[in-house]
Design a protein that fits this description.
Oligomer: single chain
Number of domains: 1
Shape: elongated
Strand content: under 5%
Largest sheet: none
Number of helices: 7
Structural class: mainly alpha
């Protein structure tokens, strides 16, 4: 990923990713609400699948951009919010075992290397695994110290509205498309992505990545 050195570069990267997604979402929306009969049904089905893809894509990319920004601060381990240390340790001890010696490197990093410049995982470590449930969304935000409680009222939307319908479509199940469902999904995704973008800019501006 391209280095993100400044707040301006962070904002530019977020806006660039968001802008092309919003244009495509608007095009999908117009096709769905303007269609008739079978053409509208196809537009709704494809619209739901692609709208989910843009939600997952923006969550993944925006958080990766923010992680790249934090990496570029060159902070010491002791300066970083605990979640970034958790992310680091999760990459070091990714295989569960009861052998104490396996965790030696992680313990040494937490104790002896606290004053060293942090070497955080590459941004590509952030992934939704093609299944952005609400619990997965919360975990992604935790990795970069973003407050997922602001989205608590969206749990039903993630799991039962957009993800369930998207999965039914991509797995070849037949469900009669309903325009009102698609409109709810379209508006919900715009709201979530807009709020997440602003949250990231606010976190960077106020150094919320620090302990």
């Amino acid at each position: 990923m391209t280095p993100v050195r400044t707040l301006v570069e962070l904002e530019d990267a977020l806006q660039l990713d968001a802008s092309w997604r919003r244009k495509e979402l608007a095009s999908l929306y117009l096709s769905a609400i303007g269609g008739k009969g079978e053409a509208q049904s196809r537009a709704i089905r494809s619209g739901i699948a692609l709208t989910y893809a843009h939600l997952e894509g923006f969550v993944r990319q925006s958080v990766r951009v923010y992680l790249a920004f934090v990496r570029g601060r060159n902070l010491r381990y002791e300066e970083l919010a605990h979640c970034f240390l958790s992310l680091k340790v999760s990459r070091m001890v990714s295989h569960g075992t009861t052998k104490a010696s396996y965790y030696h490197g992680a313990v040494r990093m937490l104790i002896e290397d606290a004053k060293e410049i942090a070497i955080l995982p590459e941004p590509e470590v952030i992934s939704a695994h093609s299944n952005l449930s609400f619990s997965r969304f919360v975990e992604i935000l935790y990795c970069v110290n973003l407050d997922a409680s602001r989205f608590s009222l969206r749990e039903h939307f993630f799991d039962d509205v957009i993800l369930a319908r998207r999965n039914a479509i991509v797995h070849g199940e037949f469900r009669k498309p309903v325009l009102s469902d698609y409109i709810e999904i379209h508006n919900g995704v715009l709201d979530i992505t807009d709020r997440l973008e602003q949250m990231i800019v606010d976190a960077a501006s106020n150094a919320k990545y620090k302990r």
